[in-house]
Amino acid sequence: MRSKAFGERASWPLKTAALGALLFLHTPIVIIILYAFTTDDRTFRFPPPGLTTQWFETAIASRPDFWAALGLSLQVAVLATLAALVLGTLIAAAMYRTKFFGREAISLIVVLPIALPGIVSGIALRSAIGFMEIPFSFFTIIVGHATFCIVVVYNNVIARLRRTSPSLAEASMDLGATTFQTFRYIMLPSIATAVLAGALLAFALSFDEIIVTTFTAGQQQTLPIWIFSQLSRPRQRPVTNVAAVFVILLTAIPIILAARLTRRAGGDAPG
Amino acid sequence: MTEFAVELRDVVKEFADPGKAGELVAAVNHVTLQIKDGEFFSLLGPSGCGKTTSLRMIAGFELPTSGEVLIHGQSMGKTPPYQRPVNTVFQNYALFPHMTIGENVAFGLQMKGVPKAEIEPRVKEALEMVRLPGYEKRKPRQLSGGQQQRVALARALVNRPEVLLLDEPLGALDLKLRKEMQLELKTLQREVGITFIYVTHDQEEALTMSDRIAVFNAGRIEQVGTPADIYEYPATEFVAGFVGVSNLIRGEAARQITGTAADFTIRPEKISLQEAGAPVADGRCTIGGTIHDVVYLGAHTRYLIDLDGGGELVVVQQNLETTSMDVRAARGRKVQLVWERGHNRLVARSG
Amino acid sequence: MAAQTIPLPPPSLARRLSTFFYRRPRLSLFATLALPLFWLVIVYLGALLALVIQSFYRVEGFTGQVVREFTLGNYQQLLEPANIDIILRTSLMAALVTLAAVPLAYPLAYYMARYASPRMKTILYVAILLPLWSSYLVRVYAWKLILAREGIIGWAAEQLGLSGVLDGFLAIPGIGGPSLALSNFGVFIAFVYVWLPYLILPIQAALERVPKSLLDASSDLGAKPNTTFRTVIWPLAFPGVVAGSIFTFSLTLGDFVVPTVLGNSQFFIGQAVLTLQGTSGNLPLAAALTVVPMMIMGLYLTAAKRLGAFDAL
User: Fold this and answer.
1) Count of structural domains, chain C
2) Chain B neighbors of A171, CB-CB under 8 A
3) How many beta-carbon pairs under 8 angstroms link B with C?
4) Do C119 and C166 belong to one domain?
5) Closest CB to A115 among C26, C110, C246
6) In a shared domain, residues C259 and C195
């Protein structure tokens, strides 16, 4: 419902409120970055008494626990994303056109891992792990992550599939391409950017997740778990902020990429 | 002629009824059709009448619930579209947006494994045939609707199908462009020489382009014939009303005019208007009425006449001498409608 | 043009497989869904089942081992005042957070839907998604910095001479605490902050679906902008608000991070569950407690479905 006719402009109270919300969203992040440079390593004093980059060096050079956590988070995110990609795309392909018995139920199940509060998914998986007496490990974490990442991929892919005209696949088969060839030459290019966007979002989601991970990780520490454990320890406070800056970068970049991909391909479908 | 280009034998297609769960509705209800080689054959009817479904069954996008689809004598059975010797031109063109025009047109050849050296000249030839030479490198979104439609044509024809199926291809174009394309398509068909099966809801379009027409209604065919046959000798009330204006006269009014109570239709251009009370020659039908409304259409004028005995008739007259000025004065005048008895057409009620 | 149809390529395995599946649409569907369904149903739904079953077991007092005997003891324990307290506190917080987030989210969503150019819209999308994904933990932590006694808010209050007001505020029981960074109010602010993007986007999507022609018709019939908003826009975009509220409510209900980082010692459901399954070693009770937010969300989702939120997602 866009209103650009006759030079219609937003009223300034609206603009102020919108801007206010945006500032509210972003200022805390700026603060975090600021505090990664403070010289005060005990308190959260404002304004910071001095600025330094020493904590970056400390984090990089002398905190192996930080690196271990970062590495684990990356591995988990990559594998969980791959699993979610395959599963999410398959579901989207099945659901986007054919009406079949149980379609609504599947729609619900896909959303459930993210719609139910994290502790529910967490305790559920924990109980299941307990029952089956599987040891906590790398794989228990990935299973948890992949499950709630599926919906992110699914949403992206199915939105794109719904925007693709069904006659494209029909035209392809009419011209002599089998279903596999149609998928490869026609469908795949049209959903490629959506799949990629979904993958990026899933990566960011997994990288950042703490609640379900806490319940499925046992002794291992992903980066968020590590940060959480650091919050109650006053030792070298700004290093936590440095870790935070790393996390911000590692999640911000995929998001920006994902947004540009979805937008660019969005204007690409005539007829 | 030993075999037809396309044949439908007692074809039925049922779908799940969207309104009533668990029930089926027949979109195509026992349709039998024979289409000759080299014909421009139209499937005509209102939306939902089964014409598009029938076309899709020939193409292979739908499989019949029962009955057979044959192409040049071969029963298609459950053959998928990519194994059938037909190609389709879609209403929304369905050009692949991520490929250039050249790649689009070459797609069918590529899928069938035609060597690259051969593909290029064939694509060039196809684009020239639809009067878009040199467009290979452009993308679909850079083209207008009419141009996209021609690319879709080229993409289909380059594969040299035995039959070309067209699903309301001109529906998205504006009137003037549509009329141009109608003539182009007809010329193209004569040049290429293959059978065209054309789906449309526009009866004027069907009359203009076709060698023969099949008129569909609610899943059944009501009449098959040449444009002249269908217009001059409509078999049913529906055909009479769908193709042109029908001017249906029933029961008592019919008895008054012709002496028998059989339903008949009379085309509006066959009726002439005389002064009320003027003498009527033998062998002609006549009835009196009052001009209720007049519409001036430039080349001709359309009159809506309230008949004396009740009912209405539409009369169309060429404006040989009348002008819009005379037209306004005509409202409310009493007239005598006169036409040749031989122009009456008896019609069956529609099933 | 010579009219010779091109011969079909020879029937390779791929072609035959393709035709096999094409003729059997239901088998194709099943083949596509088999793997993901297996995962979701067996793994996830199975885990949920495990949770429910777990909630009916109990722990052996001494060994701390789970005894697999059916008992309702955990649910009885939930009815104790301390636990009821926790449940009510969490539910109230979830409701307040949701209610407070709507007026904050709406203007931005409205601006995006109605006035932003396509380019500006992408920029705003990124601007909203960025905080969402740039580490939830970090964003919560940021408020610890901001709300700390010696942090920005404290500093600003001092500069403006409002320290007294701040202290008075902190003294209010139930809301205040030793400092803003250790108070229910801090928890409240942080919750609103972290879930805000989840609310903005569905509202924006719902607003975009309101056809401009309706707004034109409304003003054409004489309605002032406020009236048009109240009678046309708000009701039509409401499903989007409900859809977004599912997130804010659900996420608040189950969270343990924010209360741990910013709360005082009053427990929320998430923290209780965490300690129960961890150090206290009473997994069955933790499971029983977890069933509570499940039920609450079940009711919430049913209500949301009635209000059309699922079509808005």
Assistant:
1) 2
2) 88, 90, 94-96
3) 34
4) yes
5) C246
6) yes
Cα C177 to chain centroid distance, Å, stands at 26
pLDDT of A58 strictly over 80 = no
Cis bond before residue A47 (omega within 30° of 0): yes
Residues C28, C127: one domain? Answer: no
pLDDT in tens, B226-240: 999 999 888 888 998
User: What domain range includes position C248?
Assistant: 80-312
Q: What is the mean pLDDT of residues C299-304?
A: 86
Chain A residues lying within 8 Å of C139, measured CB to CB: 28-29, 32
ipTM comes to 0.81
Contacts of A7 (CB under 8 A, 6+ apart): none
Say yes or no to pLDDT of C244 above 60: yes
Query: How many Cβ atoms from other residues are within 10 Å of residue B283's Cβ?
Result: 8
Residue C60 forms part of a structural domain: no
Is residue C66 situated within a structural domain?
no
Q: Is residue C269 part of a domain?
A: yes
Rounded Cα–Cα distance for residues A234 and A232 (Å): 6
> Would you say residue B12 has pLDDT above 80?
yes
DSSP one-letter code for A164 = S
Residue with tokens 């010692």: C265
Residues C289 and C3: their CA atoms lie apart, in Å, by 76
Helix residue spans in B136-197 (DSSP H): 145-157, 175-192
Which CATH number does the domain housing residue C130 bear? 1.10.3720.10
Q: Checking DSSP bridges between strand B195-200 and strand B40-44, what pairing results, if any?
A: parallel
**Among partner residues B60, B95, B107, which is closest to A271 by beta-carbon distance?**
B95
Q: How confident is the model at residue B2 (pLDDT cuts 50, 70, 90)?
A: low
> A: neighbours with 3+ CB pairs under 8 Å?
B, C
Maximum Cα–Cα distance across chain C: 95
pLDDT tens for C125-175 read 878 877 776 678 878 888 888 887 777 777 787 888 877 777 777 777 777
Q: Supply A199's token pair.
A: 């993958």
* pLDDT of residue B53 exceeding 90: yes
In this structure, the answer to whether residues C42 and C91 fall within a common structural domain is no
Give CA separation, C176 vs A43, C156, C161, C171, C191, in Å. Answer: 21, 18, 19, 6, 16
C neighbour chains, 3+ CB pairs within 8 Å: A, B
Is residue C1 assigned to a domain?
no
- One domain for residues C215 and C176: yes
Q: In angstroms, rounded to a whole number, what is the distance separating the alpha carbons of residues B46 and B31?
A: 16
